[in-house]
Design brief:
The chain is built from 3 helices and 5 strands. It is of the alpha/beta class and 137 residues long. It folds into 2 domains: 29 residues; 69 residues, Nucleotidyltransferase, domain 5 (2-Layer Sandwich). The chain has a 5-stranded mixed β-sheet. Helix 2 packs parallel to helix 3. The termini are far apart.
């Protein structure tokens, strides 16, 4: 059985590659800072436009609740069918991809929900959803 007669050297961390990466990052950031300075010094006057549409994406889906008596609420505010159509049409003018979630009372007549869906369609809403819950077996 051979015996070890010498002591192994402890492992040494090689920092050469890490220093190379660090220098490359420093050079990259120094050069990119130079390019941004050149863009700032360009004498350019940007044209002005009138504010027409929204700059942000469409908001969350609007929620329409239909209770069993036929009462309609749009985002927790009571409205009639004509008011619903008008408000959704106005909102659609700002956001063409506006979505509407219709939640109807399960014990109420479906005609009330159908009237709300028709009002949404008249307002030009293309993304309609109906909220239901799964029955428990």
């Amino acid at each position: 059985m051979p015996l070890k007669t010498h002591v192994d050297e402890p492992p040494v961390m090689n920092l050469v590659s890490m220093i190379d990466v660090l220098f490359l990052l420093i050079i990259f950031f120094m050069l990119s800072a130079q390019f941004t300075e050149m863009e700032r010094s360009i004498a350019l006057e940007v044209p002005a436009v009138s504010g027409g549409g929204a700059l942000s994406s469409a908001p969350e889906k609007r929620v329409v609740n239909v209770d069993r008596n036929g009462g309609i609420t749009l985002d927790r505010e009571a409205v009639s069918l004509t008011q619903l159509t008008a408000r959704l049409a106005d909102a659609r003018k700002q956001y063409s991809d506006l979505g509407v979630l219709v939640r109807g009372d399960g014990s109420g007549p479906f005609q009330n929900v159908a009237d709300v869906l028709n009002a949404c369609k008249q307002a030009g809403i293309n993304e309609l959803a109906i909220s239901v819950k799964l029955a428990t077996p």
